[in-house]
Structures are given as structure tokens and as C-alpha cells.
Amino acid sequence: MEISKFYSLPKLPYGYNELAPYMSEEQLRIHHTIHHQAYVNGANAILKKLDDARWGNVELDMKAALKELSWNIGGHLLHSLFWENLAPPGRGGGKPGGKLADLCEKEFGSFERFKKEYTQAAVSVEGSGWAALTLCRRTGRPLIMQIEKHNTNVYPAFPILMVLDLFEHAYYIDYKNKRADFVESFWKIVNWDEVSKRLDEALK
Ligand code: MN
């Protein structure tokens, strides 16, 4: 990874039209180039403001700056994970294999049970937020989390294996207010290879 003092919008690992019909080109393009870009710009603006205040020896509302910084960095990191754990239908969807399948079986009893719990978590996220599959390194157990908004001033410590964006901007063009239909479509384009790769890294 190229090290830069500022954030930049990552390229998608597929074309804007490749997740259709589960995510339309228009929906994906706006989500990536407008919404995700806004978090990148927002984070960079606050970093710049912190730099300017620090080196210009100017007072700053720290609480407000840090809250806004966490909101924007949280948004940027979660979106970056989200794009990578999606794949065009055919390559994405289906069921996981290998260690991930074993872990689902061991923790949830079956893949179907895991899918049901994750779906329920996603559909019931209050307001705007995310559903995440994470791994607790202390117990070795996978945990499903609801991330509300993403400006809680906490940078999550559990490695995130998979996320699903449930802000309305993630689905309103394609699904209007039908969040459950969007969540159902997510299972057709989830990239299990990427989720498995993240599990391997989390277990190291
Ligand atoms: Mn989003």
C-alpha cells in the first residue's frame, strides 16, 4: 500500500455495471463516487485543519474535530472493506468454503443459521449503520455486530471479516425503502473468497 498523509478513494475491484441486477450501475456509481468520496474529502479536511491548527499554534474545538474525524475515517474504512467483500454474481454469492464454512458450522450450527442471524442484524440496524461479521481474537468466536452510524469515536478493534452498508444511500435508488430486499440481494454478490482471506489474516 502506498503511504500518503491523506486518504484517497480506492478503485473498485469490478466495473460499475458488474454487480447488476443486484446493485445497479447508477446506485453503485453514486455510492462510490459521491458518498464514499465525501468521507475521504471530509477526513482529509479535518486532518488538514488539525495540521494547520497544530503548526500555526491555533486553538481548535478538539471534541468536534475528533468526532468529525472518526465519522469520516470510519466511513472511509468501512466502505473500503465493503467494496472488497462484494463480487459480480457468479463469482460472488453461494456459500463459503474451507475454514470459514467450518467456523460458521461450529459457531452457528449451520450456514443457514448464520445467514439468518446476519440478515436479522442487517435489517434491524437502527437508522443508518452497518452489519459486520467480526472475529474476537480472545475467544476465537465470530461475532455479528451492528455498527450504528460510524461516528462513535471508536475505531473498532475486532478484525472485520465482512460488512454490509445499510445507510439509505446504499440502496434507495434500487430498492427505495425495501431494506430487506437489498439485504437478500447482498447474499447474491457477497465475495466469500475475500471474507475467507480476511479470516486467515485475523487468525494469524
Ligand atoms: Mn455507504
Termini gap: 20 Å
SSE pattern: HHHHEEEHHH
Point out poorly predicted stretches.
none
Number of strands: 3
Under CATH, the homologous superfamily of the largest domain reads Iron/manganese superoxide dismutase, C-terminal domain
- Any idea of the CATH topology of the largest domain? minor pseudopilin epsh fold
Number of domains: 2
Query: What does the main sheet amount to?
Result: 3 strands, antiparallel
- Please, how many helices? 7
Mean pLDDT across all amino acids: 94
Radius of gyration: 18 Å
Q: Tell me roughly what share of residues is in helical segments.
A: 40-55%
Strand order in the largest sheet: 2-1-3
CATH class of the largest domain: Alpha Beta
Characterization of the model:
The protein has 204 residues and is mainly alpha-helical. It folds into two domains: 25-84, Helix Hairpins, CATH 1.10.287; 98-203, Iron/manganese superoxide dismutase, C-terminal domain (minor pseudopilin epsh fold, 3-Layer(bab) Sandwich), CATH 3.55.40.20. 52% of the residues lie in helices and 11% in strands. The chain is built from seven helices and three strands; from the N terminus they run ααααβββααα. It has a three-stranded antiparallel β-sheet with strand order 2-1-3, sandwiched between helices. β1 and β2 (141-148) form a beta hairpin. The chain starts with 24 loop residues before the first helix and ends with a helix. The protein binds manganese (II) ion. The site of manganese (II) ion (MN) has 7 residues, from α1.
